[in-house]
Amino acid sequence: MQNNVNGLKIALHNLGCKVNSYELDVMSQKLKENGAEIVPFDEKADVYIINTCTVTNIADRKSRQMLHKAKKENPEATVVAVGCYVETGIDGVKKDECIDLAVGNNKKSEIVDILNEFMEAKNDSDDKTLNGSSIIDINNTHEYENMTLTHMPEHTRAYIKIQDGCNQFCSYCVIPYARGRVRSRAVVDILSEIKGLVAAGCKEVVLTGIHTSSYGVDFGEPQLISLVEQIGDIAGIERIRLSSLEPRIITKENAKRLAAIPKLCPHFHLSLQSGCDSVLKRMNRHYTSDDFKESVRILREVFDRPAITTDVIVGFPGETDEEFEECRKFVTDIDFYEMHVFKYSPRKGTVAAGMKEQLTDKEKTKRSEVLLHLTRKQSESYRNLFIGEKLSVLWEDEEEIKGRSYMIGHTDRYVRVAVSIDEKERYRAYSGEITTVTPSAFLNGDTLLI
């Protein structure tokens, strides 16, 4: 087959989660290996690829905006929509004249062949847009689509996708319809990818997926803890970080097994969504607030000051003042390192979208501001615990803050640390390395200063 992407200028843009980010990195890698020149998204390109998101209405809107921005940047370019918005909004995608090609979630690894075939057909056709869009294999996600990253877009850590899909069907969430059911990646492929990245200089891996806690259920039983133990045996990896987990996976036995892995970062993102049991029930979450509290208690018993972060949705349909107050008291009592606060967004096709008593945006915003104020206070209090202590920091990037140059890194608990740096040679020497430092103060609200 003629290699039509060879020599093309291709711009890529990612929206959404870490899984999307990983998949876009693999697509970019494949395109470069086949001769494409990857250019910034705000430059004129021959092809624009937008890896879309559909987790909220805002994500849908941002996906459309980026697709339209690409066509406006170069009307003659091929604009490619890939991912979750394509899966759930196919009728709109077909009608959108800005989109030339739409690719489903399970075909991202074939982006080079798909583009080659499309460009050949486009060159042979009088209709340069093929009637607005060409749809490639939507909603056909039965097996795990194997993708392998061979280099790190970030020079310090790499995201490793270990599974796809979700079987939970929370009443507010459209992702199971966009990503399909749980499909786990083979252990041998995960270990092989990590070993290759270690050889390329990787120090830290972040295990990610659509529902990471479900890893292995399609093999017969959950296997996440076993997988982490095997990754911990890989020479050269210094840190293993987990992405979002369901609280039910944190049992005393599992916590002890994780704590026995020296390379595991004591940083746990437990998905909460609400601290009120009646709201959790309407959300179709499969745990209670007491279950969640017990998971946190176990982590704090087994680990030293673990960083515990979470997601909270405010303004879920029917959420009363009393229910929100119950949630506020709960998250205050748990005392998270950080909370990601989201205003509920109705998603067409979900159970929650048809529920009565939808709250106004004004009500949602008011509640969101309460929790955002709370999490700022809790976050600063947690970071303050580590002032004056010796910390291991993985140095990542140079950043200018208030006119001064700093090197920025993170501890194993994902506390951000900065050191003032004036000489490029020192930056080059430290970048990508882990060193022990002692912060003495705050640089700003979210960063400790050495």
Q: What is the CATH superfamily of the largest domain?
A: tm_1862 like domain
Assign the CATH class of the largest domain. Answer: Alpha Beta
- Largest sheet at a glance? 6 strands, parallel
CATH architecture classification name of the largest domain:
Alpha-Beta Horseshoe
What gyration radius follows from the Cα positions, in whole Å? 23 Å
Helix content: 25-40%
* Uncertain stretches: 127-132
**Cross-sheet strand order for the largest sheet:** 2-1-3-4-5-6
How far apart are the termini? 56 Å
CATH fold description of the largest domain: pyruvate-formate lyase- activating enzyme
Overall morphology: globular
What structural class do you assign from the helix and strand content?
A: alpha/beta
- Tally of extended strands? 19
Amount of beta strand: 15-25%
Question: Mean pLDDT across all residues, rounded?
Answer: 91
Tag the structure with descriptive keywords:
450 residues, alpha/beta, Rossmann fold, pyruvate-formate lyase- activating enzyme, 3 domains, 6-stranded parallel sheet, globular
Account of the 3D structure:
The chain has a six-stranded parallel sheet, sandwiched between helices. It has a six-stranded mixed sheet with strand order 17-14-15-16-19-18, with no helix packed on it. A four-stranded mixed sheet has the order 8-7-9-10, with helices on both faces. It starts with 8 loop residues before the first strand and ends with a strand. Helix 9 packs parallel to helix 11. It contains 14 helices and 19 strands. It has three domains: about 10-135, Methylthiotransferase, N-terminal domain (Rossmann fold, 3-Layer(aba) Sandwich), CATH 3.40.50.12160; about 155-385, tm_1862 like domain (pyruvate-formate lyase- activating enzyme), CATH 3.80.30.20; about 390-450, no CATH class. The chain is α/β, with parallel strands linked by helices.
